[in-house]
Amino acid sequence: MAPPRSDSPRKKPTQARAQATVEAILRATAHILRTAGWDACNTNAVAKRAGVSIGSLYQYFPSKEALVAALAEEHATLGLGVLMEAVTAAPRGTLTFEDTVRHYIRAMVALHAVDPKLHRVLVEQVPRLKGGLDVVRRVSTQSAALVRSWLETQRKHLRAVDLDVATFILVTAVESVAHLQVLDRPPQLDQEALVEELSELVLGYLGVTRRASR
Q: To which CATH superfamily is domain 65-206 assigned?
């Protein structure tokens, strides 16, 4: 009897052994997507690659779609962590406003370039999954809230701007460029130049005069 299909994991691992099993399953899924593509990825292939039984896999992931959604959520959560690290450094005096923007953009561009083959599959397939985008949107909503909160504390650096609109524009711009530089990046495109120009775009939009040195 086939297991019920779902785009959500069945349960969260709580013990170390279970967490190790889930990690092995996700890394196996990523490997197959990266090396063989979407069509070659199925629960039987993932279980074999991970070295677990199909029953063990189904305890946590009822379908291929649930596996891919979990990978997408993991990637989005990494991005949230990058943002959190950048904006929490500023209040400690570690980074100026300008350097905070540049640090976040550089980290996001680098994050998306770590595993471009896997990232391409996720970008192409997640929107097709039932509820797939909901997984990413949950994390994106957290990221947007963090950006808006940070902008609120930095009003003295900004021109008069609607922070809700500014948050949407900034988050969308950075995420879009980070995605596209992996998917459609011309071979001659210099990554550091991309970071600098995108930083100038963001800072210019916010009306910030750049003071930090490169």
A: Tetracycline Repressor, domain 2 (1.10.357.10)
- DSSP output for the chain: -PPPP-SS-S----SHHHHHHHHHHHHHHHHHHHHT-TTT--HHHHHHHHT--HHHHHHH-SSHHHHHHHHHHHHHHHHHHHHHHHHHHTTTTSS-HHHHHHHHHHHHHHHHHSSHHHHHHHHHHGGGSTTHHHHHHHHHHHHHHHHHHHHHHTGGGS-S--HHHHHHHHHHHHHHHHHHHHHS--TT--HHHHHHHHHHHHHHHHTPPP-S--
Phi-psi bin for 45: left (phi > 0), alpha (psi -120 to 50), beta? alpha
Domain with CATH 1.10.357.10 in the chain: 65-206
Q: Which two tokens stand for residue 113?
A: 């370039």
CATH code linked to domain 16-62: 1.10.10.60
**Residue the block writes with tokens 């996720």:** 122
State pLDDT tens for residues 134-162.
777 787 888 889 889 989 988 888 999 99
How far apart CA 102 and CA 104 sit, in angstroms, is: 5
CA 49 to chain CA centroid, nearest Å: 25
> Residue 212: pLDDT above 50?
no
Residue 78 and residue 178 in contact, taking contact as beta carbons nearer than 8 Å: no
User: What's the whole-model pTM score?
Assistant: 0.70
